[in-house]
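Batch job 17 of 40 flagged for manual review because the log was empty.
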Amino acid sequence: MSFDTDVLVVGGGILGCCVAYFLARDGVDVVVIDRHDLNHQASGSNAGSLHVQMESARANRTDPAYVAAIDRSLFVFAEGVKAWQRLAPELDRDVELRISGGLMVAETEAELRGLEAKTERERAQGLEVDVITATEVRAVAPYLSERVIGAAYCPQEGKINPAIATPSLVRAAERLGARFRRQCELVALSPETRGFTATTRQGAIRCHRVVNAAGAWANAVTEMVGVHLPTSRRPLHMNVTETTTPLVGHLLQHASRRLTLKQAEAGNVLIGGAWPAGLHAITGEATVLRATTESNLWVATHLIPALGHLRLMRTWTAFNIIVEDANPILGKVPRVPGFYMAVPANSGYTNGPIYGQLVAEAVRGRDPSFDISGFSIERFSERPS
């Protein structure tokens, strides 16, 4: 296989597929390659939470530079959900997009004070978040334990099914002319006078521009053109229970414990919260840890006692990308003309469509829909050594 294209997107997760969709919709010739299958790593392994509130691990950080970086990006999460609401009707299946609201619950007065400070920051950035009392929590979420004394409620949060949504998006992009190459690993990338030559396991691809959407492996792609990314990979873990009757009506998080929980359309309860997975000593692949599984399920049943009788049907792992300041890296790389970044940080599935739109605008040379200067790769080179 050897062919030409205008734009080559490296990485077939939700963000790479969204970039391809928006470019193809504008009539751009675009090819997406992935070394595995599409939607294979974090995009297909996550539970489909649509986050708007700050996760507790971020909200509880106090170092000023980190706080400022997070506050600058808060508006994007609400825009990410809106982008999904615009995109879902254009797809050929019900992707189980449900905006039912989210609760971040508190069990102690200290946690409640923390939620009040968090919502003040969020509301200053235009998010719809309020702290509600224990009585109000009982009224909207009677399934929660009596231990809960309050919560931050955000009506903009919800869920989606990644196993349906990404393949539907791929089919929509293909109908617009985008091409996808599976099991097509990038081996080398050579900048040339009028673009790049990408050497893959399936042959050479000549292109004018490249978009790096390789997620947790994005650094390996940028190294091919002499650019280092301050990112790392972290193996994370998820659980899913057997099906049960409708029980959990919200996206649920905890003010200090690791927990993200919701009930899928089919009735299964998805339980996660950035709990760590292990690394296999020989293969280097992510592996399930018994202690993580037990701890994650304990937090879930601690808050929702009715989950205690359900059987655990499956637990799995995937790698997630970690960026130093927890913000995405989007847009052009000035040092390498024609090379663009599409690297998420937190809540990559939530923000896949909005990030994809913004990167596609950058590739097309258009003014961005939102100011993304704070997400440029150049922010890392500007820091004092």
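Reviewer: the log was empty due to a logging misconfiguration, but the result itself is present. The CA atoms of residues 155 and 343 lie 27 Å apart. Unflagging and moving on to job 18.
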